[in-house]
Amino acid sequence: MSDRRPAADRPRRAALDVLTAVRADQAYANLVLPQVLRKHGLAGRDAALATELASGAIRMRGLYDPVIDACLTRPRLQEQVRDVLRLGVHQLLSMRVPDHAAISTSVDLVKASVGRGPSGLVNAVLRKVSTRSYDDWVDEVAPDAKRDRHGHLAVARSHPRWVVDALAEALAAEGASDELDALLTADNAPPRVTLAARPGLADVTELEAVGGTRTTRSPYGVVLERGDPGSIPAVAEGRAGVQDEGSQLVALAMADADLDGRDEQWLDLCAGPGGKAALLAAIAAQRGAHLVANERQPHRAELVSSAMRAVPDGTVHVLAGDGTRPPWVPGTFDRVLVDAPCSGLGALRRRPESRWRRAPGDVDVLVGLQQVLLDVAIDSVRPGGVVVYATCSPVVAETTAVVAAVLGRRGDADEVARFQLWPHRDGTDAMFAATLRRRPLG
Q1: For 149-178, what is the mean pLDDT?
Q2: What is the C-alpha to C-alpha distance for residues 238 and 234, in angstroms, rounded to an integer?
Q3: Does the keyword GTP-binding apply (predicted)?
């Protein structure tokens, strides 16, 4: 008998490669996916299928794993077999793939990637899964919604329980507790690809011409309805970039805040990987201002420099430095953006693995850093200048609580504006931004 393993179809094999890299190598799905697609020569519909399979299986494992476990006669599984089952369950419960196709392709996939041994188990488990709908399985494996609403939603919408609790607190702070299920559901929807036309370098009409639709809030945003953004000349040349509309609005909050006096020196304190900095640099160039884009990690500072390749010379200085120990003189800048390192719980749509990698203790550590960085930002701006504090997280501890703590002990700055965006309301990442003004002297 031949030991040769049968071939699996390329999109499913590519999706399994992504799951393996995320699990075994702690890779980020959005970064490893393009490499895997190139490796398997996938484009168009095949690339879209591989993307949906991988992202969906990673995102929804909080539901799929209990479903798989409910169908097992023995509790332990090889990790790669579980990955194959996650892909199969995603097809059965969340995609329009016929049951027979989802099961047979999963059996072929485990034969090709692991061997013939687990093929019978994969077949049996997926056949059991196929006997019930998504909602029926939720009723089977999730806690009772009336007795434990957050526990039910944690399984039904595949979020860690502590994340559900933190997002519920953030919504409750706005009097919107009834929107929790809508938010968690939106976190599981694939995000739209949104582009930013960097002013003076590209115009939104150029991006509309390749199949884009203008965003409703940012004057520079265009939603790409189809195609590869990297193939668009403006993106390839750095005149435009892939950037969520929420991130664009954060940059605009800094650039457009009312300011008295000079408006010449701008600072992006935590600039990596460079999307907001590139938009700010383009705006600064039009206004005759200069931007310092600071990033602590050298490899991320290189990404910032790459993002600036189309910006006029002399507009930007990219600095690889520790934002908590800045080399510049206090009061140097007129405008400062501190897009602080955060839990990233506002961007769960586009980072499917992040919800499983974060822990409650991470927030406690980050809050201390966020407060230090906001202090530095206020010190760095002149009296009368403005600071925008932003996070890609709606968590109260990282947003309003940080601003309140810093302002409460300083006495030399005031909050003048604030916004919180939400995926389920605004179609953006859950970006938070607070605009502060340093009090004039005297």
Answers
A1: 98
A2: 6
A3: no
